Amino acid sequence: MNPNQIKRNSLNFFISDSWLDNNGNLQKYLLENYKIVAIIESHVESFFKKLNIKACIIMLEKCKDKNVLDNNIVRFVSFKKPLKCFTRLLTKMNLESLKSIILVYDEFCETDDLRIFPKSQRELWDEVRWKKYLI
Q: Which GO terms describe its molecular function (predicted)?
């Protein structure tokens, strides 16, 4: 797949983190239609300082191949430092850079900056509560 095709098939967005434990319909839809590349949350501060909403970033790639979806590794990423430390990576132009950093980790990893908990997309079908992977 060439880089332009990847970008056209990618979807990144902010959403309240409450869906991680409470929205089976959204979880099912994502599991059936997208490679969930990463779910990212900050443990230090909110992405939206003026709103009383705890949000997360979801990074997705459109995919309909069940084998690819089942074997995909979802990375639950927790930022452990203030968001200003990640500002360069969180801009639209650099989300692909952030993605490439995250994709290196197929196993659990924890540093002073972040924590990455990988989980196969197949395993998430049996889980209703996903937030525990960000704690």
A: DNA binding; N-methyltransferase activity
